[in-house]
């Protein structure tokens, strides 16, 4: 049961244009969403996050939008740069099932972004 | 500041063997999580430790186990290895245990089971 879905395994954009990566989720109890970027032979690195009480968060060239009614979030990168070429993972933080805290994340399967010079 | 360190980086085992992977979190981080990454499956949550206590466990068979030591270092063990256990095993640490915090990942241990 894939609770976090990234339906596009790959995306190719031209340098300078906008990259839009999409993510859908099924569990309405997720309270926090994050994007991670992963280069080959490296561990994922945190990119940007958004709380479920917000609908937008911006950090430089990166903006994440959250549409709770549609259970959909997207990552916008503008302008895209060749160094942005990587696999992008969407992740969601579930509410802990015992009332405590947790750092557990549920990840999507990733989208490989290729930014062409 | 040193990042998350995982050892070994690469290893090859045969079916039926067992393996132990090690993770040293960032200094001061008390939360350690483990994830399995396989092609097409993304990162699958294995378990999470905070102050030596397992707080969460993912949907993996009992052959997968872990522990955390008093210095926050963590190990995971996989017994009776199967071909399907071939994967990149990633460890992540976090300063807080409060959730929604940024996870810092190591480079992973790539396990190949023959």
Count the beta strands of chain A: 11
Shape of chain B: globular
- Percent strand of chain B equals over 45%
* DSSP helix fraction of chain B: under 10%
User: Based on helices, strands and strand pairing, what is the structural class of chain B?
Assistant: mainly beta
The stretches of 5 or more residues of chain B where confidence is low (pLDDT under 50) are none
Number of helices of chain A: 0
Biggest sheet architecture of chain A: 6 strands, mixed
Biggest beta sheet summary of chain B: 7 strands, mixed
| Broad structural category of chain A | mainly beta
Order of helices and strands of chain A: EEEEEEEEEEE
N/C terminus separation of chain A: 38 Å
What pair of chains forms the biggest interface?
A-B, 29 and 31 residues
Key phrases:
heterodimer, A: 117 residues, mainly beta, 11 strands, globular, B: 114 residues, seven-stranded mixed beta sheet, four-stranded antiparallel beta sheet, 0% helix
Can you give a write-up of this model?
The complex is a heterodimer of chains A (117) and B (114). By secondary structure, chain A is an all-beta fold. Chain A is built from no helices and 11 strands. In chain A, strands 2, 4, 5, 9, 10 and 11 form a 6-stranded mixed beta sheet that branches. Chain A has a 5-stranded antiparallel beta sheet with strand order 1-3-8-7-6, with no helix packed on it. The radius of gyration of chain A is 14 Å and the shape is globular. Chain B has 114 residues and is an all-beta fold. Helices cover 0% and strands 53% of the residues of chain B. Chain B is built from no helices and 11 strands. Chain B has strands at 5-7, 10-13, 19-24, 31-38, 42-50, 53-57, 64-68, 74-78, 87-94, 104-105, 109-113. In chain B, strands 2, 4, 5, 6, 9, 10 and 11 form a 7-stranded mixed beta sheet that branches. In chain B, strands 1-3-8-7 form a 4-stranded antiparallel beta sheet, with no helix packed on it. Chain B is globular and about 35 Å long. Chain B starts with a strand and ends with a strand. At the A-B interface, strand 4, strand 5, strand 9 and strand 10 of A face strand 4, strand 5, strand 9 and strand 10 of B.
